[in-house]
Each structure stands twice: as C-alpha cells, then as structure tokens.
Amino acid sequence: MANIGSFLFSHPLDPALIISKQLTKSDLQGNVKLPKQQTESVLMRMGGVTAYELQNGKEVVVFDLVEGDEYTVTLRCLNNTAYYFGDGW
C-alpha cells in the first residue's frame, strides 16, 4: 500500500476517523490510553471490529498528522472499556 500520509492529503479526511490525544508522561513510559468515544467512533467505521476482538489486539496503521509520521501499532481493548495502543508504539 502507498504511504498513508500521501493518501490522506489527497482525500478528504473524515473527522470521525480521527483520534486526538495529548501525550502524557505515562503514555511515553508504556501503553497509550486512547479516548473511549473517539476510539469507538473509529471502530464503527473499521468494518465491524468489536471491543471483544481487540482483547487479542489488531494491528493498525496510524498516521500522526502533527509530525507526519506513520506507525504500525497494535490496538487493544481491556475489559471492553479501555482502549490503548500496545505493541509498536
């Protein structure tokens, strides 16, 4: 697949697919906890991915709009309530 950044800049960006978060010190020391409402909005658009399925993790490509960097990370869910990026962050 082509660079996701190139794709994003040539197509309108759906705000429902954006997860925004200001990083904290704890994010930099471990897993990045994600805002629940924004994450669930993205999940609804990922073709039926459920919180239950994310307990084992799902590899996703993330594009950092601020830095212009692309990452492959594992999106996970804990107890169907807390979403976070695990491996790859």
From TrEMBL:
GO terms for cellular component: nucleus. It is found in: Nucleus. Keywords: DNA-binding, Nucleus, Transcription, Transcription regulation. GO terms for molecular function: DNA binding. The keyword Metal-binding does not apply. Its main location: nucleus. This is TF-B3 domain-containing protein. The lineage of its organism: Eukaryota, Viridiplantae, Streptophyta, Embryophyta, Tracheophyta.
